[in-house]
From TrEMBL:
Residues 349-616 form the Penicillin-binding protein transpeptidase domain. It catalyses: [GlcNAc-(1->4)-Mur2Ac(oyl-L-Ala-gamma-D-Glu-L-Lys-D-Ala-D-Ala)](n)-di-trans,octa-cis-undecaprenyl diphosphate + beta-D-GlcNAc-(1->4)-Mur2Ac(oyl-L-Ala-gamma-D-Glu-L-Lys-D-Ala-D-Ala)-di-trans,octa-cis-undecaprenyl diphosphate = [GlcNAc-(1->4)-Mur2Ac(oyl-L-Ala-gamma-D-Glu-L-Lys-D-Ala-D-Ala)](n+1)-di-trans,octa-cis-undecaprenyl diphosphate + di-trans,octa-cis-undecaprenyl diphosphate + H(+); Preferential cleavage: (Ac)2-L-Lys-D-Ala-|-D-Ala. Also transpeptidation of peptidyl-alanyl moieties that are N-acyl substituents of D-alanine. InterPro entries: Beta-lactam/transpept-like, Glyco_trans_51, Glycosyltr_51/Transpeptidase, Lysozyme-like_dom_sf, PBP_transglycosylase, PCN-bd_Tpept. It comes from the Bacteria. Keywords: Carboxypeptidase, Cell membrane, Cell shape, Cell wall biogenesis/degradation, Glycosyltransferase, Hydrolase, Membrane, Multifunctional enzyme, Peptidoglycan synthesis, Protease, Transferase, Transmembrane, Transmembrane helix. The keyword Cell wall biogenesis/degradation applies. Gene3D superfamilies: Biosynthetic peptidoglycan transglycosylase-like (1.10.3810.10), DD-peptidase/beta-lactamase superfamily (3.40.710.10). Pfam families: Transgly, Transpeptidase. This is Penicillin-binding protein. One of its GO terms (biological process) is cell wall organization. Residues 67-232 form the Glycosyl transferase family domain. SUPFAM superfamilies: beta-lactamase/transpeptidase-like, Lysozyme-like.
């Protein structure tokens, strides 16, 4: 009788055995297809991901963050054991015992899916989930599942459990473009993971099981229920007591969601531009671009540079800058309000600290939004007479024996077909160089350029960072600021720093660039060089000061023991400039319209003077 019953049981099991054999045979055949793929090692190095880039002001306070995905990877030793235990108990209780996959869980899933005629039931270990994150799709098919098993086994052979767990905890998805347990802590509670309470740690641990369903910003109650379920699991598995579990359940959960810091958009936009230049200079791309034999080569090197910049930024950076946040905020607010009383008028300004030669404040246009056209360093405009100190008068006093008291003709002048005129067509007799500078007479400036020599004068100008000058600019109209392309507001402020003490070093916003660990990756290496002798500096500072007191700079009123400046107006009143310096700052101001138009009707309002007064205090 017993034997008969045994035969009956065996016969009844045949269908189940056949089903199981079919699945196993199919999976073995599929697995064999990946044999070649596994001849090489499966690397456990983190995949290419985009980490945040953080910008710090002069006081090391964050003022801007750029990221698509929020990540804050942590070493395993910095992840509390309690959190590790929560995720192991909820996701893979046999993690430390299996070889990458769990046979018993797989058989349970196979039979459950066979009974339901689906492939929805999962049996993934933590190792399998990491494999899926790294190498495979999330498609639920048996073919993909087999590949996952084999990869997981290989990963376990090549790595220890701690490495696998650390990578898993730093890469799992926590909804809202948040990846990793450390990032989840700072994103949802505004605190590092080790500062969270245990209840908060379990709460964020509830999210990865189904980031859409357990998104706490949309489905808070569902996430809370999942948290309580995990606490029950901990109690059931004797990881915590029932009393402890009840205490965790009853602790109120209050989210303090992180918002992306995006202050001072014009300054942060410029910093990201400067970062590209810093990488280009530091890694030799700039030299390659400048020495390219043709346009195609230059384009190739520029593309190489952009690829490298993207690669560097994706690793996550901390950019330390010279931004003075209070000054930036006040300057932008004042200029915006001033411009809002006009129609379509635009402005740009740059302020540089005299001691450090660092950019501390910048204005790039009214109502500026991040990555808009930055008029401070992208708008190339004619400089007018604001260029005279750099191209004409500085070289004159540097290279000749002339003094401000020497006289020069202010009368009519023609050089071949070029016949410049003074403002309003005025004709003067002999005037002192000081007077010609004070009132920005034009014909004396052209005569002085003749005296120095065009090439000699441009040799001095080319010591600075004027990036839009061309050989065709080497003409007499340049004495009055007539250039083929023009200059930017930043370039003008930068060059005027040479009148602080005769020394010049390019002005920058970036102090250094570090990784998350504080290791310095990039910093500017330029040294100061002497461009003007002490004699020339003293003369030029006196002349610039005289402009403010007696000349075209009347209306400038800055609280400083020294204030010197030069104004500039271009043909048809298209551009107004003031560039100058005080004891503390050097700055340049430009106002005009994006589509140039005559500003003579608003000249008397001296808007550029008002801006200069604001940014220099």
């Amino acid at each position: 009788m017993r034997q008969a019953i045994g035969y009956i049981i065996v016969l009844l099991c045949f269908p189940l055995i056949w089903i199981l054999y079919s699945f196993i045979h199919s999976e073995i055949l599929t697995a064999s297809e990946f044999k070649e793929d596994l001849k090489g090692a499966i690397p456990l190095n983190p995949p290419a991901i985009t980490s945040p880039i953080v910008l710090l002001d002069k006081d090391e306070v964050i003022f801007s963050e750029d990221y698509v995905e929020w990540r804050d990877p942590l070493p395993l030793e910095s992840i509390p054991l309690f959190v590790q235990e929560v995720l192991i108990q909820s996701e893979d209780v046999e993690f430390y015992n299996h070889i990458g996959f769990d046979f018993s869980a797989i058989f349970r899933a196979v039979f459950a899916n066979a009974a339901a005629n689906s492939s929805d039931q999962g049996a993934s270990t933590i190792t399998q989930q990491l494999v899926r994150l790294r190498y495979l799709s999330t498609e639920k098919t048996y073919e993909r599942k087999v590949t996952e098993l084999v990869y997981a086994y290989e990963m376990e052979k090549q790595s220890n459990k701690e490495e696998i767990l650390e990578n898993y905890l730093n890469e799992i998805y926590f909804s809202n473009k948040v990846y990793g347990i450390g990032a989840a802590a700072t994103y949802y509670f505004g605190k590092p993971l080790n500062a969270l309470t245990e209840a908060q740690q379990v709460f964020i641990s509830a999210i990865p099981n189904n980031p859409s369903v357990y998104n706490p910003l949309k489905n808070f109650e569902a996430t809370k229920k999942r948290q309580e379920l995990l606490i029950d699991v901990l109690v059931k598995n004797d990881k915590i007591s029932t009393e402890h579990g009840n205490m965790l359940k009853n602790e109120p959960i209050v989210l303090q969601t992180k918002t992306k810091t995006q202050l001072y958009p014009v300054y942060s936009t410029y910093v990201l531009d400067e970062l590209k230049s810093l990488i280009s200079t530091s890694e030799g791309f700039q030299e390659k671009i400048e020495s390219a034999s043709n346009e195609q080569q230059a384009v190739f090197h520029k593309n190489e540079l952009q690829t490298r910049v993207n690669e560097v930024i994706s690793q996550g950076l901390v950019v330390h800058t010279a931004l003075d946040p209070n000054k930036q905020k006040e300057d932008v607010s004042y200029i915006d309000n001033l411009l809002n009383n006009t129609k379509d008028l635009q402005a740009a300004s740059v302020v540089i600290n005299n001691d450090t030669r660092e950019i501390v404040s910048m204005f790039g246009g009214r109502d500026y939004r991040k990555f808009d056209f930055n008029r401070a360093n992208q708008a190339v405009r004619q400089p007018g007479s604001a260029l005279k100190p750099l191209l004409v008068y500085g070289p004159v006093f540097e290279m000749t024996s002339l003094t401000p008291n020497n006289e020069i003709s202010g009368g009519k002048l023609c050089i071949a077909s070029y016949c410049p005129q003074n403002y309003g067509g005025a004709v003067y007799g002999n005037v002192s160089l000081k007077q010609a500078f004070r009132f920005s007479h034009n014909t004396p400036a052209v005569r002085l350029l003749q005296t120095v020599g065009i090439e000699e004068a441009f040799a001095k100008l080319e010591q600075f960072q004027f990036n839009h000058l061309i050989e065709g600019d080497h003409t007499y109209p340049a004495a009055l600021g007539g250039l083929t392309n023009g200059v930017t507001t930043l370039e003008m402020a930068d060059a005027y720093t040479s009148f602080i003490d005769g020394m010049y070093k390019p002005a920058h916003a970036i102090r250094k660039v570090t990784n998350k660990n504080g290791d310095t990756l990039y910093e500017w290496k330029e040294e100061k060089m002497e461009v003007w002798s002490p004699k020339t500096v003293n003369i030029m500072r006196d002349l610039l000061s005289d402009v403010v007191v007696n000349g075209t700079g009347k209306g400038i009123n800055v609280k400083s023991s020294y204030v010197g400046a030069k104004t500039g107006t271009t043909n048809d009143f298209y551009d107004y400039w003031i560039t100058g310096l005080t004891d503390t700052y050097t700055a340049a101001v430009w106002i005009g319209y994006d589509m140039p138009q005559n500003m003579k009707p608003i000249e008397s309002r001296k808007i550029h003077h008002k801006i200069f007064n604001q940014i220099m205090n």
